[in-house]
Amino acid sequence: MYQVILLKSESSFVRASWEQAEEVVEHEGVAYTLRAGPRQPLPTDHAWDPIVVYAPEEIPEEEFQEWYAAQQPQVEELRLKY
């Protein structure tokens, strides 16, 4: 199982669990590409599945990095240590 974070915008995301982590996926009619992961977080107070992060395929890497940083305060998976 993979813990999936879909970054929809700089301030919006979707959290899901999927059996597979594909390079490109579609969600609500938008194509998303795998941008980070899969990565296995270091142990915390509970077990974590590998984390994968997706963003719309049309955004450049620099914009993805900005969205990732903006979402870190509210998305626990983005703050984990690996």
What's the short version?
The protein has two helices and five strands.
Notes on the structure:
- With 82 residues, the protein is α+β, with helices and mostly antiparallel strands.
- The chain contains two helices and five strands.
- Strands 2-1-5-4-3 form a five-stranded mixed beta sheet.
- It is globular, with a radius of gyration of 12 Å.
- The mean pLDDT is 92.
**Spatial arrangement of strands, main beta sheet:** 2-1-5-4-3
Report the end-to-end length measured between terminal Cα atoms. Answer: 17 Å
Q: Compute the gyration radius: what is it?
A: 12 Å
Q: Please work out how many helical segments DSSP would assign.
A: 2
Which whole number gives the mean pLDDT?
92
Structural class: alpha+beta
The stretches of 5 or more residues where confidence is low (pLDDT under 50) are none
Q: How many distinct beta strands?
A: 5
Quick one: biggest sheet? 5 strands, mixed
Query: What best-fitting shape do the alpha-carbon axes yield?
Result: globular
- Helicity level: 10-25%
Strand content: 35-45%
Note the run of SSEs as H and E: EEEEEHH
